[in-house]
Design a protein that fits this description.
about 170 residues; 5 helices; globular; disordered N terminus
């Protein structure tokens, strides 16, 4: 991973998450999940997925990359969580607060991930097949669908789309 530099623009900052962001990040992730999947899954799922212990492990892990965008009030408005395994970087989560969507924050986070990792990496992600908005976004970032799989997810049968992108593909410009 390249050296990290905090980035600021207008009234927002892009920074690696730190342990002091734990409480706010956990709540942000729960809120973002609920607003995205309120009609599909029970309310209890985000509490399990984004429990503080889990988020803490992500923040302090050497192999997991957690980057956040905060506004001038220090409110988290977007975050990306990814892990690296040899030549693969897997995007685990990308959330943008509903009030801050369509302002290029998702694009900035994905591009920052591309920049931080070596050029010989393969980027991958898994998303719900019914999440057309996310699918369209990742296609616009150069990801290609490579597979669909059916899995149990909290006692529900769900179809996931697997997408990949070679780092050699051009970075999407804002």
């Amino acid at each position: 991973m390249n050296d990290y530099k905090k980035t600021r623009w207008l009234n927002y900052s892009l920074d690696l998450a730190k342990p002091e962001n734990l409480e706010q990040l956990s709540e942000f992730l729960k809120h973002s999940w609920k607003s995205s999947y309120i009609d599909l899954f029970p309310d209890s799922i985000p509490d399990k997925l984004f429990h503080k212990d889990t988020v803490r492990k992500w923040i302090v892990s050497q192999n997991i990359y957690v980057e956040i965008i905060r506004n001038c009030d220090e409110m988290i408005v977007a975050c990306i969580i990814a892990f690296q395994n040899l030549n693969l970087v897997h995007i685990r989560k990308l959330y943008v607060h509903p009030d801050f969507q369509h302002q290029e924050f998702g694009t900035k986070l994905v591009n920052s991930l591309f920049i931080k990792f070596d050029t010989d990496k393969l980027f991958s992600l898994k998303l719900f097949a019914n999440n057309i908005k996310a699918y369209t976004f990742y296609c616009s970032m150069g990801f290609k669908e490579v597979d669909r799989i059916d899995k149990d997810f909290f006692q529900q049968k769900v179809t996931f789309i697997i997408m990949q992108k070679n780092q050699s593909s051009p970075i999407h410009q804002n």
